[in-house]
Amino acid sequence: MSIVDTASAYRIKGVTKTYQQKGRVVNALTGVDIDIAQGDFVTIQGPTGGGKSTFLQLLGALERPTKGEVMLGDTDIAKASNADLGKVRAHEIGFVFQGFNLIPTLTAAENVDMGLEPLGLAKEERAKRVAEALMRVGLEERGDHRPGELSGGQQQRVAIARAIAKRPRVLLADEPTGNLDESMRDEILVVLEELNAEGLTLIMVTHDSAVARRAKRRLRLEKGTVRDITK
Ligand code: ADP
Ligand code: MG
Fold it and tell me: Which Gene Ontology MF annotations are present (predicted)?
């Protein structure tokens, strides 16, 4: 008999996140317990204010929980030093946002290269990774274009190239197709699904049920609590 051992990308236990907002306490997350397997494709749905972005920020080591444990591999994001969190963000986590967040004065290749800045790679290795990442998202011919010369779908593909050039373990995406029409949305999903098929753990916030249906696992975050709604 074989024992199936699915390694976890994240193990999250008893996580709460509280913010102070104008003297008022806001409970963004209230007791979240969940494991996310390596190589999974997870979507997170839920109403505005439900805690989705907060949850992604914890997963991305951009924030620490108020209480509880967020284990990314062997690193506890609650307890790690700021320097270690910086390393985790630089090496292990790619981020993609709804608004692309590209620098308008830089070319596509220069934007991708910027994502490699914290890794301290040699110039040749950087150039190689930029070219590879642009090819991976089908934009090898567009490296010298500025964001303003690209469609929304192409801009988001540049942002994905920037996120994967560092070869992260996890890609976190906050409404990555929220600003795109249907055909561009599909072009982004195909790229993300291919990356997931190659082993990248993909965790995506979306309002779009058509997007969520393509995930392997669906979560719903409401009033600071996570529920698994995979059917
Ligand atoms: P969602 O992404 O699902 O819309 P958020 O995680 O952005 O939800 O927000 C959850 C709750 O936490 C909201 O009430 C929001 O106002 C609050 N919140 C989020 N970030 C902060 C912050 N940096 N400071 C204060 N309150 C915040
Ligand atoms: Mg949000």
Answer: ATP binding; ATP hydrolysis activity; transmembrane transporter activity
Ligand 2 mean position to 169 CA, how many Å?
Answer: 22
Token pair listed for 179: 């600003």
**Ligand 1 atom having least distance to the Cα of 50:** 3
Beta strands in the chain (DSSP E): 8-21, 24-37, 41-45, 67-72, 75-76, 93-97, 170-174, 201-205, 217-222, 225-228
Question: Ligand 1: which atom is nearest the Cα of residue 57?
Answer: 6
Beta-carbon contacts of residue 166 (< 8 Å; ≥ 6 apart): 90, 91, 94, 115, 116, 119, 129
Minimal-distance CA residue to ligand 1 atom 14: 49
Scan for tokens 């098929």, then name that residue.
197
C-alpha 226 chain-centroid distance = 18
pLDDT at 231: 84
Which ligand is closest in space to the CA of residue 48?
A: 1
Q: 70: which 2 tokens?
A: 């967020």
Give the residues of the chain that fall short of pLDDT 50: 1-2
User: For residues 31 and 29, what is the distance between their CA atoms, to the nearest angstrom?
Assistant: 6
Residues enclosing ligand 1, CB less than 6 A?
19, 21, 26, 28, 46, 48-54
Mutation choice for ligand 1 from 16, 21, 29, 221, CB with most ligand atoms inside 8 A = 21
pTM, two decimal places:
0.94
